[in-house]
Each structure stands twice: as structure tokens, then as C-alpha cells.
Amino acid sequence: MIPFCRTTIGKEEKEAVNKVIDSGWVVMGEKTQEFEEMFAEYVGAKHAVFVDSCTNALLLACKYTWKEPLGSLIDVPSFTFTATAEAVVNSGNIPCFIDVDKDTFLMEDDGDFTQNNYRLPVHIAGRKSDLPALVYDSAHRIEKDEVEGDTLWCYSFYATKNLTSIQGGMIATNDTKAYEWLKKARDHGLDLDTQQRYQGKYMQYDIDFVGYRFKPSDLQAAVGIEQLKKLPQNNAKRDYIVDRYNEAFGLKRKGNHLYIITVKDQEKFKHFMMENDIQVVLHYRPLHTMTGWKKYAPVIGNKPLDLPNTEWLGEHCMSLPLYPDLTDGEVDFIIEKVKESGQLI
């Protein structure tokens, strides 16, 4: 079986975790800070804040950016994972579902809002969105020197991502004021972090504001550090596979996290590929068609929701295996079976 995804965790990560355990300090501490500094340098930001998931990174970014007035309409693509819109709702605001381009899968410019702080673009499949914004969902994309201005970029280190810390996320930014708030917000709003409270002489803490419990561990940070060292090489391998797929299928896909194709019949294609021991996955079923999101979908501003590209993609898109350990032989076999299926559009 060729799985849809396989992690790149190896002996380096195992050894790093053991060292943290042997150190006697496993909660958020020096390794977390080291990972944050390394990651910020990699993506070209002044600051980075490590949290326990990208979902919570997005929530904190939304809480900071759109705290007043609550109930603002925030543009989000319906063609994405639920966490994007979930962060908008849980921050006290309202998602306004927007259609995506049929070829790039990126959110279109709605045009209703002139201020760029009312949208949350997604770098879907690893392809960068060019829409200006104050918050980006970059769960699918980690590239060098991309963070500019005072934007908040939210990254995912889930097990399936290009860089994994098993669970975890990061917010990168050049905004020092936001950075200081985010550091406290992830740890209950405390004025002293975990190390300051438990290492050395005991210090009494205060609560600067009501925060959240989104902090990571040094065990996760240790894995993340080793993964970051491997990221350039692993991304290069992913780029190579994307190029192979593009050449074989006559496509021009960009991004190296997901390779999305469109097929005539999803169920027939999925079963055909599984019969040939290849796991494929549906990315994505449109959010506005799902039970929990339907109440946000029928009418926005007295205008019926019309997302033809998103709905078409939801009925025809599938993602192929894409990870660094795929061999040339496996890529050849996947290409052969996709063509043999007769389902490719």
C-alpha cells in the first residue's frame, strides 16, 4: 500500500526527545524558545510564537486582529479545512464564505471590503495567496523569507504537514506589540512564563488579561527543531514530485503540500486507486455544505450565496500521495494508475 502520507520523523527526532526528557524540563522552556528563534529566522520574521496547534494559532491571530468590533464579517474560502472558519467564529466574528479560483484553488477577491483586515486567505495546497491581509492561514506552506510587514502568519506542524512536531503551530510576525500579546495569551495571560515561575527563586505572578491554555511542550519543540533542519531538503523532494505529476498530467500545479487533481467520479476513482493499493484523499468538501456551517451559508448581506467553483471542486477534487519518501517507482506507479483510471479531468 502506498499511503497518502508518511512522516519524516527519524532517529534525530528520537534522540532530541530523549535529551529533553533527560534534562528534567519538558514543558515550555528553552527548547521552545530555540525553536521559535530558528523558525522566525527561516521565514524572515522578527518574532515567532509556538503554540499547541495551528487551529489555536489562527484563533489567537483572529482574537488579536479583530477584537473590536466583534461580529465583523471576515472573508474566508469555503474550500479549506474547517479550522480556518472555526477560528473566525470562536474569535467572536462571522465567516463570509468566498469562492475560489477553479485552477489555483485560491480565494478570489470578493471586492466588497476595501480594507485588507477583513479577510483570512489560505495558502491552499502550499500555493501562496497574493491577496493582501493581516492574517494568513499558512498551514500548508512553509517557505523561506516570506513574512512581510505586520501580518500574522499561522503555520501548522500537524503529523501530515511538511514540518511536524506531532501536534503544534506557530505564529510568525514582525509586529512586536502583537508578539508580546500572543506570548501571554497562549499561557493564560500570565505576566511570567512557565520558566520564570518554576525555575530559580519563586516569583509571584499576576494575570494581565484573561488568556488561553495553548502552550506547547519542549518535547514538541525538540522534534520541530530537527524537522526544520530537514525542511529545505524535504521541500525540494516534494517540489520534484510535483514537477513529475505536472509533466505527466499536463497541469501547472504550484505548492508542495497537497497535489490536487480533478476527476469525473470521486467514488469510482477512490475505489480504483485503493484496489491498486494507492490511498487518495478528498480535499476539500466545501464548508458551506456541511451541517455545522449551513447557518452561515444561505444569505450574506441579503445576497444568496453563490460559490460555483467551490461546489464543482467539492464534487471532483482528489489529492494524490505527496511526501519526501515516495520513490521514483512509486510515483511512476501512481501516475500510471491515475491515467489508467480514465477519470482525470
Question: What does this 3D model show about the protein?
Answer:
- With 345 residues, the chain is an alpha/beta fold.
- The chain contains ten helices and ten strands.
- The strands form four sheets. The protein has a four-stranded mixed beta sheet, sandwiched between helices. Strands 2-3 form a two-stranded parallel ribbon.
- Helix 3 (54-65) crosses helix 4.
- The longest helix is centred in the C-terminal third of the chain and has 32 residues, at 218-249.
- The protein is globular and about 70 Å long.
Q: How do the helices and strands line up, and which of them pair or pack?
A:
Layout: H1 11-23, H2 30-43, E1 47-51, H3 54-65, E2 73-77, H4 82-90, E3 94-98, E4 135-137, E5 152-156, E6 169-173, H5 176-185, H6 194-198, H7 218-249, E7 259-262, H8 266-275, E8 299-300, E9 303-304, H9 308-316, E10 317-320, H10 328-341
Parallel strand pairs: 2-3, 4-5
Antiparallel strand pairs: 1-6, 5-6, 7-10, 8-9
Helix pairs in contact: 1-7, 2-7, 3-4
Secondary-structure element order, N to C: HHEHEHEEEEHHHEHEEHEH
Largest sheet geometry: 4 strands, mixed
Structural class call reads: alpha/beta
* Share in helix: 25-40%
Distance between the termini: 25 Å
Q: Please, what is the average pLDDT?
A: 94
Give the overall shape: globular
Uncertain segments of ≥5 residues (pLDDT<50)?
A: none
Strand order of the largest sheet: 1-6-5-4
Query: Any idea what the radius of gyration is?
Result: 21 Å
DSSP, total strands: 10
Strand content: 5-15%
* Secondary structure tally, helices: 10
